[in-house]
Amino acid sequence: YWRRAAATLLRRAAPRRAARRTLSAKPAANGHVTGWFEHYAKHGKEGFDVAPPAAPFDWASHATPTRCFFDVAVDGAAAGRVEVELLDELLPRTCENFRLLCSGAAPSGAQYAGGALVREVVKGVGLLGGVVDAPGGSRSAFAERHFADEGFFVPHAEPGLLTMANAGVDTNGSQFYMTVAPAPHLDGRCVAFGRVAAGMDVVEHLYGTLYTQRGVPVEDVRVAACGVVA
Hints:
Blueprint: H1 2-21, E1 26-27, E2 33-34, H2 36-43, E3 67-74, E4 77-86, H3 92-103, E5 120-122, E6 126-129, E7 161-164, E8 176-179, E9 192-198, H4 200-209, E10 212-213, E11 216-217, E12 221-228
Antiparallel strand pairs: 1-2, 3-4, 3-12, 4-9, 5-6, 6-8, 7-8, 7-9, 10-11
């Protein structure tokens, strides 16, 4: 009895299994069944892109008069210098916020000196840093704690960008990313306002060698000194 019952159940289940196998297939105009695998074979990965990747920003067309620096220390030992250049003409308020925090002249009293340069190593993106002595580790240089997104003019289409980190729309403070790879998912979310002009090897070394626990570095990576390059 049990053998006959099992055979009956298998015969009834066979059409349902066959139907599930063809759920992802779509009949073409000529009646031929196609699936994602045939689409991939014909068009490649680009066939699944919803939009073409953005072109890198044209840095040569914009003057970058302000350059700031960070002297990096890992567990108290000097680890090199990183210099960044800012797009003052295009994003004046965002760049002014960064410059004031570097120079120590912020009206809010916040400053980068002595703070953590690397708060988190974000895989596939870069280094998250810019921690200041404030609740949550982030505060703007101005009287208000946060300031608005100034503009999304620079696409995250190349490594070495300096871009604001935030907790949502119009919540820019002091924290920022230094990217090591294109990060198109940040477009329209984070304001890129500069790039690494010197010391990209330091950024890449920290990104590749820091031992982390859930992204948080075990070593103490701090800003030993910072300021505006004369």
